[in-house]
Structure formats: C-alpha cells, structure tokens
Amino acid sequence: MGQYRRNRAFGKAQSHVTIRILTSLAASAPPELPPDGRQSERALAIRRGVCRRLRAEGLALIPEVTLRSGRRADLVALGPDGAITIVEIKSSVEDFRADAKWRDYLFHSDHFYFATGPHVPADIFPLDAGLIVADPYGADILRESVCERMPAATRKEMLIRIARAGALRLHDLEDPDCARGPE
Predict the structure, then answer these.
(1) Which of 72, 86, 142, 144 could form a cystine bridge with 105, CB 3.0-4.6 A?
(2) Are 79 and 55 in contact (CB under 8 A)?
(3) 92, 106, 159, 180 from 76: Cα distances, Å
C-alpha cells in the first residue's frame, strides 16, 4: 500500500500510494444475496414496490430482520429522523388469515404497515394498522400508520439489529464463503 520515504533531493518527506485497479469487478454483474426461499414471487414483487416507494421518501430499508422475540420482520425501514417502520407483507387472503403474530411487531416499531397487492381486498386488514398496496413498480399508501414511539431501550436494540443485519449482509456479498457466527 503506501510507503513513506524521504526524498533526498529536497529533504522533504513524501508519501507514495500504490493503487490497484480491479478490472474483473467492473466487467461482472453486481453481487447479489441469494434468495432465502421463504418468500413467494408475489411477496417479493410487493416488497420491491414498497421498497421503491419508501426509498423515494428517504427511508433506508432492510428485509428480514430478526427481532428479540425470534420473529422476523418482512421489511424494516429507518427514517432520517430515526423512526423505525415495520412492514408486514401479505400476498393473499390466506396469508393474512394464517398470521396472528403481527401485533408483536408493534412493540418493535414506531410505525407499522401491512403491505399487499391489488388483488387482495383492503377491507380484510385491521383499521388500526397502516396499509400499503404495491406492485413490482411502486406502491400507494392507502392508510397511514399511527406513530407510537418506542421506549429508548427498545429503539437502541432495534438500531443495533438493523445495523448488524446490514453489515453482515454487506460482508456476505463481499466474501460469500466466510464462516458465519450467530446473527
């Protein structure tokens, strides 16, 4: 990398930096995390549309974040003000009816939304949760979520979980063969 040596002609210290250009990375496609297989194609399409909408509003998003309870939030968004939003994706009526765990997410977020596709009737979702309808290209927020601020200790824990999930996934992209410890 950099070498430090004294230039005898001028008596001044100079720093020399060697730059190595990796041309093989420039020519290949960007790395991608492999799908984990838990989501249907329809759920992934909904997630994509929700991510596009929320990212356009300035939120940072990360899918599949494990909570202290052991449950996994489908999508977690972090706002510029530190607000944490959890989005639970429901790709069908049956998917919604089979899920009774969604209220647990309220303890881990400031805002909570259900996200679904246009093929699912909006009236099946509870009125006390936000509602997003999405396709692969974008999303509409049909009902805003109420803001219920989390306690400081829960916020700190969630911010650590979000940061660790993001850092571990970035490292997995850089070195997919690396041994993994617990998340």
Answers:
(1) 86
(2) no
(3) 20, 12, 10, 22
Q: Where are the domains of the chain?
A: 41-174
CA-to-CA distance for 168 and 153, rounded, in angstroms? 23
Q: Which pair of tokens denotes residue 80? A: 């510029």
Q: How far apart are CA 22 and CA 35, in angstroms?
A: 27
Contacts by 61-65 with C-beta closer than 8 Å and gap 24+?
62/162, 62/165, 62/166, 62/169, 64/36, 64/38, 64/165, 65/161, 65/162, 65/165
Write the single-letter amino acid at 6.
R
Residues 153 and 47: their CA atoms lie apart, in Å, by: 28
Q: What is the pTM of this model?
A: 0.78
CA distance 83 to 158: 11
Query: For residues 59 and 83, is the Cβ–Cβ distance under 8 A?
Result: no
The CATH code that applies to domain 41-174 is 3.40.1350
Tokens standing for residue 176: 């997919």
pLDDT in tens, 20-33: 444 444 445 555 55
Instruction: Record the tokens describing residue 10, joined without a space.
Output: 């001028």
Structure token digits, residue 106: 């309220």
